[in-house]
Design a protein that fits this description.
This protein is mainly α and about 230 residues long. The protein has eight helices and no strands. It starts with 10 loop residues before the first helix and ends in a 10-residue tail after the last helix.
């Protein structure tokens, strides 16, 4: 049987083999790279790149969003301020309107009181009370009792009573009315606001009381002809 010789792998063979293997790897890498670089322009253009914040630095998109948020907040604050101002103005106008209404109502009430005269009976009691009301406003002293007492003595309560026999009558100026007043005295002591008629009951009483106050201090001090 022929002898089979054993193949000896020498050091040189090992180095050559390693070189061949390395060369094949490089070729494979080159082939792979070539295939990647061979991509078409359309494929490369389809890849979108988004801006990314690096090291905490905001992108332009972040800055725009922040600015928009600030503008919105400023608009909301301005709207709230305008609403508060409008509400305050409306409240002030309402208060002013109510105050004017109250003042006008008070003025109308005062006017009604001023123009509405008191009601007095058309008799001796009413004439005396109306005269006393006027005398009080004019600061003319006198009481109901003093007026009534002198009226009953002078005319018995008759507003048209006329004295046609005394010295005044002989002189052509007879005493007339509830408190028997002559015309010159009535003219001199007539109280404004009463009729300018000697025999008018209220005008006669207030003029006589005014004269008595000037001469005697008050009609209450008169107990006889005066």
């Amino acid at each position: 049987m022929p002898r089979i010789s054993t193949l000896r792998i020498t050091r040189s063979h090992k180095i050559a083999t390693a070189v061949l293997v390395a060369a094949g790897s490089v070729t494979a890498i080159a082939a792979t790279g070539g295939a990647s670089e061979a991509q078409t322009p359309q494929a490369r253009s389809s890849i979108s790149v988004e801006p990314v914040a690096a090291a905490g630095i905001p992108t332009a998109k972040d800055a725009a969003a922040k600015k928009a948020a600030q503008e919105t907040a400023a608009k909301e604050a301005a709207a709230k301020k305008a609403a508060a101002k409008a509400a305050a103005k409306a409240a002030a106008e309402k208060d002013a309107t109510e105050a004017r209404s109250e003042k006008q109502a008070a003025n109308r009430s005062t006017e009604r009181k001023a123009v509405t005269p008191k009601k007095f009976a058309n008799n001796l009691d009413g004439w005396i009370r109306e005269s006393l009301d006027i005398m009080k406003k004019k600061n003319i002293p006198g009481s109901y009792e003093g007026l009534h007492r002198n009226i009953m003595r002078e005319s018995s309560g008759n507003p048209n009573a006329v004295n046609d026999w005394d010295i005044n009558a002989r002189n052509g100026i007879p005493s007339k009315g509830l408190l028997q007043v002559i015309q010159p005295t009535f003219d001199a002591y007539h109280v404004k606001g009463t009729p300018k008629k000697l025999t008018d009951p209220v005008a006669n009483i207030t003029a006589a009381a005014n004269y008595a106050a000037d001469r005697y201090g008050s009609i209450d001090n008169v107990d006889s002809a005066y």
